[in-house]
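Progress note, sequence design subtask.
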């Protein structure tokens, strides 16, 4: 869930209305896709799911997805709704 939170925060930073220079946008995109991509790797999650009984795996899997979506809704929802697209969107 930490990776989801960081992706949301990096999105907010990179898409503020104030202009960024190209290197800043590139660094934030790299952190979001590279670092957070490694932090939120799906393969580890699949291994965790396969180690559980089927019912528990379904509960854990759905809870994980829904919690991640809730985190993004809380982090991004108010800002995106109020401000719309930002500076690094071309």
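Output:
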């Amino acid at each position: 869930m930490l990776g989801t939170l960081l992706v949301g925060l990096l999105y907010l930073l990179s898409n503020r209305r104030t202009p960024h220079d190209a290197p800043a946008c590139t660094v934030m995109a790299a952190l979001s896709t590279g670092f957070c991509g490694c932090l939120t790797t799906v393969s580890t999650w699949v291994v965790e799911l396969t180690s559980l009984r089927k019912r528990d795996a379904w509960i854990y899997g759905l809870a994980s997805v829904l919690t991640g979506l809730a985190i993004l809704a809380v982090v991004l929802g108010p800002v995106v709704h109020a401000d719309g697209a930002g500076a690094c969107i071309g």
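The longest helix spans residues 54-83. Work on this subtask will continue into the next period as scheduled.
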